[in-house]
Amino acid sequence: MGTAEAVVQSIMAAIESADSVTDEQLSTLYFIFEKNLERALRILDQGGVQRVIAQPSQRSVFQVIGESKTGPSSYLCFPEHFCSCQSFFFDVVSRSDQLCCKHQLAAKLASSLHRCRDVTVSDAELAHLLLQC
């Protein structure tokens, strides 16, 4: 884990513990994520993050609503490892320009701030959802 990732992890833990975010934390996150922080906060403010929890396994994935060139789109997201958006593959995986995409950041913030809507589905429904990626 790099320094920036460690800082982000520490900030997210502090946000979760306090259930709020300070201006100093936002400034540090902006330094690391720049425009993606603004975009992630917009998604969060619009209630665009839901956690899909499968029963009985308790496996979960985030479904994040974001804007694309064609309008609103839904992306599946594992905050630490994957997002189904094009930016993830282009900016994070291919070019390594960003630590994560705006959808991953929105999911991390929503989880830390306890601001995601939880939706329960069957394990089969979650598997079907994942196959659509």
Automatic annotation (TrEMBL):
GO terms under biological process: double-strand break repair via homologous recombination
Keyword match Metal-binding: yes
InterPro entries, per the entry: Znf_SWIM
Every SWIM-type domain range: 62-112
Gene Ontology MF annotations: zinc ion binding
GO cellular component, one term: Shu complex
Alphabetic keyword roster: Metal-binding, Zinc, Zinc-finger
Lineage: superkingdom: Eukaryota
PANTHER family xref list: ZINC FINGER SWIM DOMAIN-CONTAINING PROTEIN 7
Name recorded for this polypeptide: SWIM-type domain-containing protein
Organism encoding this protein: Ceratodon purpureus (Fire moss)
